[in-house]
Specification:
Elements lengths: L10 E16 L6 E6 L10 E4 L13 E3 L6 E6 L11 E4 L5 H9 L26 H14 L3 E14 L15 E2 L2 H12 L4 E3 L3 H10 L4 E2 L1 E2 L9 E4 L5 E3 L14 E3 L3 E2 L1 H6 L1 H4 L8 H6 L4 E5 L3 H16 L6 E5 L2 E2 L16 H8 L1 H9 L8 E2 L2 H23 L16 H22 L3 H28 L4 H22 L4 H10 L22 H23 L8 E7 L4 H6 L1 H7 L2 E7 L9 E5 L3 E6 H4 L2 H27 L1 H6 L2 H28 L1
Parallel strand pairs: 3-5, 9-17, 16-17, 18-19, 20-21
Antiparallel strand pairs: 1-2, 1-7, 3-6, 4-5, 8-10, 11-15, 12-13, 12-14, 20-23, 22-23
Helix pairs in contact: 3-4, 3-8, 9-10, 10-11, 11-13, 12-13, 12-14, 12-16, 13-14, 14-15, 20-22
Length: about 700
């Protein structure tokens, strides 16, 4: 037990199975009685009234009269209050103002005495009579037994209800009256709501404004005192001589009223009260420090949706009240990281993830990147170690690509890009980089962090590493020194800007690799963010290169289908529209290097193409390759015949099994479905193999 006050927002409710005890309260002369139902019979010791609804005709004659508390014997009045629901239970409610917040309100309205019978540590105090010293649960057991023995226990029913528990220790919260410090929140909430309504502070995603307003519009007085010695002492001082209370920022030496000695309140401020002052108290407030002037207000606060009211609302409230200005202009709200089953991580479940262990095994960059990708703002995400592994593999890809570039740089400085020497591959990668810079910048400005990270990932992995680096090798290893120098300049530019785009997500590896590039600044953090440049827009050349890449993909797919060894090369004929012949001729070296071609002929029709060719088709071209140049036709025919026989055998086996009435009648449905699936797969395979054999002649 924490032995401290809690605010309503710090109480978490969970359903628990219990009982509903129906207890009869008799008149002093036994001439009438009234029955109430309670889930906490131990609070009967603190009852000060029985309440009924003013319009409940069943009890009109006894309102204002008294009944005796069973076993205890103390007389309490029957009062009328609209808080009571006539349709629930017996329509009568026991009122224990010291141990229930709703009962407390009834007690105030009906001017009832407040009788606290629980201690701070959950025992019965001296007002509990014979039950003094028992725990609340021990008291419940003994008191119920005594009430039953007295004949006042009408019945006991099983009952499931929501029970308040402490958000910190998860033990059951025992409501009891105590003297605490409160803040009147309604006047403070009004300006804090206005700055969100008028757009001075915006939430991302915007839907979380509803959560904010729901709290603020229904806000109640805030209990800010806690009995845990962990935080700021409350600046309240009490005179030992005259009882005067002084509240001020600095401790007074003596009582200003009588000059007597003082002692400070032993309570501390609620943690959220202290943290609400964070935007300015950490900057030297109340002094007008340079830090306070520079950093307040700031721009963006990043937080989880579970503390929008606990922290965000209170920082806005304090900022408007103390500083007369908003603390930040944007609140970016993220979700909660959950385990693979979607459960919240907790010590009790033992499903927590130690980030230091993940960082030790995979690196901080991998962990960061895995958390930012594949999930949009404000939504919970599940933690999968495979995502971290994939991010680690991406780190390796980035490192190896950078290593390749650095290994191929000269000792002297790399010059600027010569725009006149750019070929279609260079223009394509610069055009794509330019587009990615524009899109990622826009995504970051709109807080679409996951989209930005994914675009950087796709660009680096696929377009830079898988394509452009391979496209550049023919010139890097060629004899033309001017082309060598220019392709190096392009590689340095693209890699450098890629590291800058990736830096917000993977700060460590990008800093190290950026520092190794020629012309790098002191740190990537102080370098200029890449900017969109109209001079690097090459839409026509980029489109041409995309078409050439489509052709290369089609050839690669064909070779894979035919099981052609990577080293096997063949002469290829590309047939394309007459307007594109020059483009494909200029890119023939790329097809030779990346598609396994021995030579490439580009033409506008199919004239002169020999028989016995296989074709690969893309959107803008057809590629014809002599089959015999790729495979040994006789051996391939023999292999296909064996595969056909194997597939036919599987079909015969599955059909025989499914034709067996005994099997179909007795086997589980999942087993029958599995056999049908095997039959379908084998039939599709047989069809493909038969067509392939037919194509061979």
């Amino acid at each position: 037990m924490c032995k401290t006050a809690l605010s309503d927002a710090e109480v978490e409710y969970e359903e628990q199975n219990s009982h509903l005890w129906h207890v009869r309260y008799d008149a002093p002369d036994k001439s009438y009685s009234i029955t109430v139902a309670t889930t906490r019979p131990e609070t009967i010791l603190g009852d000060t009234a029985i309440a009924v609804h003013p319009e409940d005709e069943r009890y009109q004659d006894i309102v204002g009269k008294t009944v005796c508390i069973p076993v205890i014997g103390r007389e309490i009045p029957i009062v009328a209050d609209e808080y009571v629901e006539m349709e629930f239970g017996t329509g009568a409610v026991k009122i224990t103002p010291a141990h229930d917040p709703n009962d407390f309100e009834v007690g105030v309205r009906c001017n009832l005495p407040i009788l606290r019978v629980f201690t701070d540590d959950g025992h019965i105090n001296e007002l509990g009579g014979a039950y003094e010293g028992l725990t609340t649960m021990e008291c419940r057991e003994k008191l119920v037994a005594d009430i039953q023995a007295a004949g006042n226990l009408v019945k006991v029913e099983p009952y499931a209800h929501n029970v308040g528990t402490c958000y910190r220790c998860h033990s059951t919260v025992e409501p009891l009256v105590s003297k605490q410090w409160f803040v009147d929140m309604k006047p403070l909430a009004k300006p804090a709501m206005e700055v969100v309504r008028d757009g001075r502070i915006k939430f991302v995603p915007e839907r979380f404004e509803k959560t904010y307003f729901n709290w603020m519009e229904n806000i109640r007085d805030w209990c800010i005192s806690r009995q845990l010695w962990w935080g700021h002492r409350i600046p309240a001082y009490y005179c030992d001589a005259c009882g005067e209370t002084i509240v001020q920022p600095t401790a007074p030496d003596r009582c200003p009223k009588c000059g007597g000695p003082l002692h400070q309140d032993e309570d501390v401020l609620d943690t959220w009260f202290s943290s609400g002052m964070w935007p300015f108290s950490t900057l030297g407030w109340p002094e007008e420090t340079p830090e306070l002037q520079y950093f307040y207000p700031t721009n963006t606060l990043v937080t989880g949706y579970d503390i929008i009211f606990f922290w965000i609302a209170r920082m806005i409230v304090f900022g408007m009240e103390v500083m007369k200005e908003i603390p930040f202009d944007t609140v970016y709200v993220h979700g909660i990281v959950r385990d693979e089953l979607g459960r919240k991580m907790s010590k009790s479940l033992g499903n927590g993830i130690d980030p230091l262990e993940i960082i030790r095994d995979y690196g901080a960059d991998s962990l960061r990147f895995s958390l930012i990708t594949g999930n949009s703002a404000g939504n919970d995400m599940r933690f999968y170690i495979k995502k971290v592994e994939a991010a680690r593999n991406f780190c390796n890809k980035v490192y190896n690509a950078s290593r390749f570039v650095l290994m191929n740089l000269p000792d002297e400085a790399v010059g600027p890009i010569d725009m006149a020497l750019l070929d279609s591959g260079d223009k394509w990668i610069l055009h794509r980089l330019n587009q990615v810079v524009k899109e990622v910048t826009l995504n970051l400005d709109h807080f679409d962090l996951n989209l930005a990270a994914q675009k950087v990932y796709d660009f680096i992995w696929t377009e830079l590493c898988d394509w452009y680096i391979e496209l550049s090798k023919s010139r890097l290893y060629g004899e033309d020194e001017a082309q060598k120098a220019n392709v190096r300049a392009v590689l340095v530019r693209v890699l450098g800007d890629s590291m800058k785009l990736l830096h917000p997500f993977m700060p460590f590896i990008t800093e190290e690799l950026y520092q190794a590039l020629p012309g790098a600044e002191e740190t990537i953090m102080l370098s200029a963010w890449p900017a969109y440049d109209e001079a690097l827009c090459f839409p026509q050349e980029a489109d041409t290169m995309e078409r050439i890449m489509d052709v290369i993909r089609a050839i690669r797919n064909l070779r894979a289908e035919l099981n052609v060894p990577p080293a096997k090369r063949a002469a290829m004929t590309i047939v394309t529209d007459g307007a594109r012949i020059a483009d494909f001729q200029a890119a023939a070296a790329y097809v030779v290097r990346l598609a396994g071609a021995e030579s490439v002929q580009v033409q506008g029709d199919k004239a002169g193409i020999p028989e016995g060719c296989v074709s690969a088709v893309s959107e803008s071209a057809e590629v014809y390759i002599p089959l015999k140049a790729l495979i040994d036709v006789d051996k391939e025919r023999e292999r296909l015949q064996k595969e056909i026989a194997k597939a036919q055998g599987e079909i015969d086996r599955a059909q025989a099994k499914l034709a067996n009435e005994s099997f179909v009648a007795k086997a589980p449905a999942r087993v029958i479905d599995a056999e049908r699936e095997k039959l379908s797969v084998s039939q599709a395979m047989l069809e493909k193999l038969t067509q392939r054999l037919k194509d061979l002649g």
